Amino acid sequence: QQQVKQSPQSLIVQKGGISIINCAYENTAFDYFPWYQQFPGKGPALLIAIRPDVSEKKEGRFTISFNKSAKQFSLHIMDSQPGDSATYFCAASHSGGSNYKLTFGKGTLLTVNP
Amino acid sequence: EAGVVQSPRYKIIEKKQPVAFWCNPISGHNTLYWYLQNLGQGPELLIRYENEEAVDDSQLPKDRFSAERLKGVDSTLKIQPAELGDSAVYLCASSAFTNEQYFGPGTRLTVT
Hints:
With 114 residues, chain A is mostly beta strands.
């Protein structure tokens, strides 16, 4: 059972454009939703995270939009740059019995063309 | 502040051989995680430690995998014997009483 579904699998955007990656979750107990950025040969790096008490969080060019009723959240990368080319993973966890266990989506390979 | 340190970064072994991975978490982080990442997939949790106690090892294949975290700091993940299907990246992460997990660079294991 895949608890976090991520789309698209790959995305090509022109420099300066907006990159949008979507995730949907099933477990309503999830209360923490991070996005990770991973470059080849590196470990995932925490990019930005949101909790369900807010609908949007912005950090620089990165914004998370969260829709609790639809059980969906998305990452928006504004003014995308070639240096943003990487694989992005959404994840979810809850603070209940499996404290802090992250369930990841399958990832989105983002390519930003110059 | 130093991040999560893992070694070795790469390991190539023949099947049926043993292998061990080492992780040093961020200083002060009480929780340590070992994840498995297959090519083109997101990380999957193998085991989670809170201090020296393994509190979630339900996904660890205990017939061949073992882990320890002596003194609640460094941790070692071992596979014995390794199988071809164990080829993957093994990631270590740590956190300090929060959901925010910070990952190391991983160890890429190739089993031939």
